[in-house]
Amino acid sequence: MGTSAASGQSSPASNNSQQLMRKHPLFFFFFMAYAFSWIILIPYVLSAWGIIAGDFTFTFALHTFGPALAAIIMTSVIEGKAGLLSLWSRIRQWRAGWQWYLFILVGIQVLLLIGIIIQPGALASFHGLPPLLFSVVYYLVNFVLVFFLGGPLGEEIGWRGFALPRMQPRYGPLWGTLLLGVLWVFWHLADFLTPVHGGFLTNFPIFFLEVMALVIIFTWVFNHTRGSIFTAILLHASVDTPEVALVPLFLVVDQTSLTLAGLIGFGVPALLILILTRGRLGYQSSQEQP
């Protein structure tokens, strides 16, 4: 009797919570994405400040899965098993035109390298590539590690898997994209409490502009690959991998100049995409939304 009564009393509260989450899916998604990630990152931040001892690097990798966890929970609440299967199918959706893979796997690297080498002293500090085979294997290994553990997998299931398909119909492709960009930037605020992104006052304004350029490119690719989460993860990995695989080849490039290189390299294409698509970013109002 006691168990049945407790169950009967908790059910209305649970139903009310679910109804509220269904009514405000974006609010609860971002609330959970921020909360999960920032709470998980606390030991890493305290360690970086010297308050606690120990290596908490694993928590940095773990905190990037906050958006994915939030997306899975919200999708389950809103759409149930069918929604989770749809989300999984878009994670496995790899079919896209070869030109998109060329842009993601080669074009992104070229744009970032252009942003690096036009900075004073960067090209002169280049100290050459290791043997070709070693360079290729080294880059591929780092790409796979970044893909799964460096942020792309954990973030993109949330940002492009859950949030963007709901923000574009509601706010329009441009304003929905820019709003997502702002929320994506500020999700990284906790990272700036550590050495990962460099100094807050120096790097955050540049980082903000870089991400706002990137988010336009991400939406453009996302809309042209039929909402593929896989290509979004791949694109994110292509943006992040050079930091560990290519940038060390330039002795004078630090975190600030790397962020500036991203702003330079991605800013111009983002502006061209805005102009050429007239702010539509490849979005079709009739395209299927989850």
Structure explained in plain terms:
- The chain is mainly alpha-helical and 290 residues long.
- The chain has one domain (2-277).
- 75% of the residues lie in helices and 0% in strands.
- It contains 11 helices and no strands.
- It has helices at 2-23, 25-48, 57-63, 66-91, 98-117, 132-149, 152-171, 173-187, 200-224, 229-245, 255-277.
- Helix 2 (25-48) packs across helix 4 and helix 9 (200-224) packs parallel to helix 11 (255-277).
- Residues 1-8 have low confidence and may be disordered.
Mean pLDDT metric = 92
**Separation of termini?**
42 Å
What is the percent of helical residues? Answer: over 70%
Biggest sheet statistics: none
Number of strands: 0
Overall shape: it is globular
How many helices does DSSP assign? 11
In percent terms, what proportion of residues is strand? under 5%
C-alpha-based Rg, rounded: 21 Å
Low-confidence stretches: 1-8
Count the domains: 1
The topology string of helices and strands comes to HHHHHHHHHHH
Coarse structural class? mainly alpha
Features:
290 residues, mainly alpha
